[in-house]
Design a protein that fits this description.
Layout (H helix, E strand, L loop, with lengths): L9 H27 L23 H29 L5 H26 L4 H25 L9 E2 L1 H27 L22 H29 L4 H26 L4 H25 L1 E2 L6 H7 L3
Parallel strand pairs: 1-2
Helix pairs in contact: 1-2, 1-4, 1-8, 2-3, 3-4, 4-5, 4-8, 5-6, 5-8, 6-7, 7-8
């Protein structure tokens, strides 16, 4: 009897999963703010903020970095709550428990990776990995949120084969585009140490041309991603896709259009920190939108059998 006192229903758990998703997205925004404000080494060591204290020194960049670390504890609480809630949800669902477990594990991995990033003075490979791990955690968070809002006995989501496969292709191309975007940031002027006067190694595998090269590759990938999204948007309407699938693709197209405009502006203005932060933040939002579009598409329907083969099978 006592074991059933602290249980939650499906609706309350769906709210909990949504809250965890929002918090995991929020930490991406604050992490990007740490970098573009040059506060990456505002707390120059880890797990303490300084060699002698867990807390920050009284300066702007120390407060920004320490604030991001403090927010991580709130995000960790939300992730643990999503997992614990899945265990206490009634009726219990194994898929929600497994997905819920990925969130606190991901946050712990982020904390450890963040510690190494600080200890190795914001090495570009570690900083890139830090952002990419956030995108991976968001995959689990979106999947948990999506499933928590749907019951197993609901009709499985499916889509036209071409639209479904094309929407899944958005996921792969989007991941590669984000990877190229992290490389562009790692080669750019916002290394994360400008505010504290620290010299941070930049990505320079092509020497002085590295930044121009990675921006060029990133822009080409982003253009291809935008074109594919528009094609899927048109096909979804012509092939009778459901309202939810059409609306999620619309959100993807709008966000990519905004991202493209911001990308051009920030390049023309020589990468001002404020616009770079917006660009990085919208990249996370676009990633979440793509994940939701893939979930809304569901499984592509099986290819229809050729007419001749069906007619031969009829007598049997």
């Amino acid at each position: 009897m006592s074991g059933e006192r602290f249980t939650i229903g499906p609706e309350r758990y769906a709210q909990l999963a949504r809250f965890a998703l929002w918090m995991l997205a929020l930490i991406v925004l604050t992490g990007a703010a740490v970098r573009v404000t040059g506060s990456g080494l505002g707390c120059p060591t880890w797990p303490k903020c300084t060699e002698t204290s867990l807390y920050t020194e009284l300066n702007t960049h120390g407060v920004i970095e320490f604030g991001n670390r403090a927010l991580t504890s709130v995000v960790g609480f939300a992730a643990v709550a999503a997992f614990a809630g899945a265990l206490r949800r009634r009726p219990r669902r194994r898929d929600l428990v497994l997905l819920g477990a990925t969130l606190p594990l991901g946050v712990v991995a982020q904390i450890v990776l963040g510690g190494f990033t600080v200890r190795y003075d914001l090495a570009p490979g570690l900083v890139m990995s830090h952002y990419l791990l956030s995108m991976l955690i968001l995959v689990g968070a979106v999947a948990l949120d999506w499933r928590a809002h749907r019951e197993p006995d609901q009709e499985p989501v499916s889509s036209d084969r071409l639209v479904g496969l094309g929407t899944r292709a958005l996921l792969g191309l989007g991941a590669v585009t984000i990877l190229a975007g992290t490389a562009a940031t790692a080669a750019g002027p916002h290394a994360g140490g400008a505010g504290t006067g620290d010299i941070i190694k930049r990505l320079d595998f092509r020497g002085a041309e590295t930044l121009r090269y990675v921006i060029s590759q990133h822009s080409k990938l982003a253009a291809a991603l935008g074109l594919l999204a528009v094609v899927m948007w048109v096909l979804a309407r012509r092939r009778g896709a459901g309202a939810l699938q059409r609306s999620t693709l619309t959100v993807v197209c709008v966000l990519l259009a905004v991202q493209g405009a911001i990308g051009v502006v920030q390049y023309q203005l020589e990468l001002p920190a404020e616009i770079v932060w917006v660009h990085v933040a919208l990249a996370a939002a676009t990633w979440v939108a793509i994940l939701r579009a893939v979930a809304a598409a569901g499984r592509p329907r099986a290819r229809a059998a050729p007419a001749r083969r069906r007619s031969e099978a009829a007598p049997a």
